[in-house]
TrEMBL record:
Organism, as annotated: Oncorhynchus kisutch (Coho salmon)
Name of the gene encoding the protein in the UniProt record: FAM151B
Signal peptide as annotated in the record: none
Sequence intervals crossing the membrane: 12-33
Protein name: Family with sequence similarity 151 member B
Gene Ontology CC annotations of this record: extracellular space
Keywords: Membrane, Transmembrane, Transmembrane helix
Assigned protein family: Belongs to the menorin family.
Pfam families, alphabetized: Menorin_N
Domain Menorin-like: start-end pairs: 63-258, 288-327
Disulfide bond is among the record's keywords: no
Amino acid sequence: MAVLNSPSLIRLFRARVIVLILTCSFVLCVWNLENKTPEISTELMTDQTLEYFLSQGKMQVKDAADIEWAHAANSKNKITEALQSSAHMIEADILLRSNDPKDPIMAHPPETDSDVTLRDWLKEVKASDKGIKLDFKSLAAVAPSMVLLDEVRAELHGPVWINADILPGPGGKATPLDPKVFLEAAVTPGSHGDVLSLGWTTGWTADTHNPGYSWEMVREMEAMCRTLRHPVTFPVRAALLAQSFSQLHWLLQQSDRSNSMRSQDVVSALLKHLILLISCSLDGRTFCRYSLTIWTGHTDVFVVKDLLPYRSGIDKTRIYYDLLDSQRTQLRGLTGY
């Protein structure tokens, strides 16, 4: 019995068990790839937003909750305020001007005109170290806007996010932008590093039951995104999250199932993918391609504590919180934050 209980033999037994488990796992992975998903991407499609602001000294820890947002910078005054603020990311809405010249302008419906065009807006932003989030409210505005954006990419310093609601979601009454047409226009040769912010149209009504994101909704979105080579963030409404944790957690877990590149040698591709994963982990970089961006409407009512499962159950680098200042303060003060 003393021999059987020898610490060295126990360690050897444990090591053999671990090797056996890893070997079986590898074989199962290869079998699944060969029989179910013969296409695998060896290209890392990572969101570099946090890394950028950490490198600039604008953040101290790798936590997406620390990103601050400036909203609706749709006028000359608003963009000036945003550039002078502590915000990391500046968000603005884009429409195509209804009268001539039909330029992309910074405006949110029902507004149809603005005192600043996208071209002039980009001239202001490119001199700063802030990131930008362009929220498209018009499908017609996407292609000409991407042309203007590509012209100044070399001069932009911060991250670029491209946002649109492309699928119907819980309580949504607005018509989403056609996903195929939007993505064809938004994905340009120069847009490889952009974060695609792809959401659902949603609604929220007081004093009634508001359904969350259904399995059908998240599966449809995942099918839409799985062949994209870009990092993707999913804007999700805070008031609808308490009943949606399982669905959204599942959606984030699909990050590693991209099949955008065909490989003739599945085993070789898998090994390359594992090597890249290990090297990125050692280098301290974020490896995740999918993330969530939690946002709220000004009149929405929700229990801030309901967001805690997203803090404890999901990597903190994978959830951005685009909330009101009072809600952010309350969230940070909760036990378990």
